[in-house]
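re: ur question from yesterday

yeah so i grabbed the chain u mentioned. its 105 aa long if i counted rite. heres the sequnce exactly as i have it in my notes:
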Amino acid sequence: MPPTGALVLATVFVTLGLVYGLWYAYSVLLVALVREMAWSRSAVAGAFSVLLLVHGAAGPGLGWVISRVGPRRVLLAGGLTLGAALLLAAETREPWHFYIAFSGL
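ran it thru and got these structure tokens back, copy pasting raw so excuse formatting
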């Protein structure tokens, strides 16, 4: 049974809400991460810079994948990857862990 339009819309809304919620809340998270983890401000801000580079570099490849397998599958895979990245980021102990979880995934 194919998903209804309302289900697809709800899935897109939740996924994009999480993605852009993290994106635009990073300035608030940065202060908390610096304080909680006792890392330098540049180490924490660097993770966001790497995220921007990965985001920009992944665009052409993701466009090709979407044209091959369709947006629903890519959105599902992206949502699952985002969930895994958030779980891994919660277990961060070192800055490089954070770079992989936040920027790489």
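noticed a couple things. Residues 27 and 105 are 19 Å apart (CA to CA). also The chain is about 90% helix and 0% strand.
anyway ttyl
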